[in-house]
Write a structure and sequence with these properties.
single chain, about 15% strand, 14 helices, 7-stranded mixed β-sheet
Length: about 375
């Protein structure tokens, strides 16, 4: 198969879809790989490294898209790339369709096959989302601590505390991979941490593995409000795979919070879990609502691009090789995890949560029906 890796052009997105190691693996399996010139620069990967691994480096994104049957990216196509997508072309990347009607419509119109990293599911886990969730979760606490400084508009509170002065109170909403990593980093800084979730088994597990300054708490309305009142940093880490994030933090809740506290909404790529959240970029990462700083960057791991690129490829390569070796349809037929990742095929949505998000059930066909 002919595999293409264009340069990411989303604002300050420095990750890249393929590492030289991944290129080598695809080429060794008999595939042809095209990489756009300079695609890896943001992740400190040179064109020479790609060529040494067996890739053909092309001078433009247009050439990569035109040559490739399968496109491997990191982030969803943006408007500039819509016209480059071709019918039956396989795109293997993060899409987060449920938060973006325009993207959903464009991909339907172009009749691509969309294999979404974020909905590949195996053994009740999301293996292609996990590495970036780890990065984003750890970043969330660091960003929250940074924007607490007075020079950034925050309360002027050092999150770690000092002798005789209490550390920050951190509230993490959601106890999955993002929330667990955020809580661990916050605990390591010495913060007082509350992590809210509705899954009692998960809360029990968190109670067993977390240090003593992390307090797992059942997430109901009263516990959420009480926690928000005490919080200096709030981290939104809620996830429903493939679906729009629930708005658990209402705009009215901001009035309960301390002036100059920081809200980091990691769920923003699925629409955000706070009513006052909207996507931001690394060039303009924050805004303020009711004296609460909102950090809502939709591609947080792009800030630590090399770490994120290699972590992502470690997870995506295994499934990518199956797609390239067998073709998307045959690979999905033989692998339930990949089947769960199939979001679109031949002008139909194949992931129900995406169709439900936009009331587009008329465009829905089950993955089973399109694969048979």
């Amino acid at each position: 198969m002919k595999i293409g890796c264009p340069k990411e052009i989303k604002n300050n997105e420095n990750r890249v879809g393929l590492t030289p190691n991944a290129v080598h693996a695809y080429v060794a399996a008999g595939h042809e790989v095209f990489v756009e010139e300079g695609a890896g620069r943001g992740s400190a990967v040179s064109d020479e490294e790609y060529m040494a691994a067996g890739a053909k480096v092309l001078g433009s994104a247009k050439a990569v898209w035109e040559n490739a049957e399968m496109i491997v990216k990191v982030k969803e196509p943006i408007e500039e790339e819509y016209g480059r997508m071709r019918e039956n072309q396989l795109l293997y990347t993060y899409f987060h369709f449920a938060a973006n009607r325009t993207l959903t419509k464009a991909c339907l119109d172009r009749k691509i096959t969309a294999l979404a990293y974020e909905t590949v599911e195996e053994d009740h886990s999301l293996p292609l989302l996990k590495p970036m969730s780890e990065v984003a979760g750890r970043m969330a606490t660091l960003m929250g601590a940074f924007y607490l400084s007075k020079t950034q508009g925050g309360r002027g509170l050092l999150a770690t505390g000092v002798t005789g002065v209490e550390a920050a109170n951190v509230v993490v909403v959601g106890g999955g991979t993002v929330g667990t990593n955020a809580a661990r980093v916050a605990a390591g800084l010495g913060c007082n941490v509350v992590i809210l979730d509705i899954n009692l088994k998960r809360l029990e597990y968190l109670g067993e593995i977390m240090p003593p300054n992390v307090h797992p708490l059942f997430s109901d309305a009263l516990n959420l409000e009480t926690s928000l009142k005490k919080a200096d940093i709030v981290i939104g880490a809620v996830l429903i795979p493939g679906a729009i994030a629930p708005k658990l933090i209402k705009k009215s809740h901001l009035a309960l919070m301390k002036s100059g506290s920081v809200l980091v909404d990691v769920a923003i790529d699925q629409g955000g879990c706070c009513e006052s959240s909207h996507p931001t970029t690394h060039s303009e990462p924050i805004y303020t609502v009711d004296n609460i700083i909102h950090y809502c960057v939709a591609n947080m791991p792009g800030a630590y691009a090399r770490t994120s690129t290699f972590a992502l490829n470690n997870a995506t390569l295994h499934y990518g090789l199956q797609l390239a070796n067998k073709g998307a349809i045959q690979a999905c037929r033989g692998n339930l995890a990949l089947k769960m990742g199939l979001n679109m095929h031949k002008g139909f949505i194949t992931y129900p949560a995406v169709a439900e998000a936009f009331d587009m059930m008329s465009c829905f066909k089950s993955a089973e029906s399109v694969l048979n």
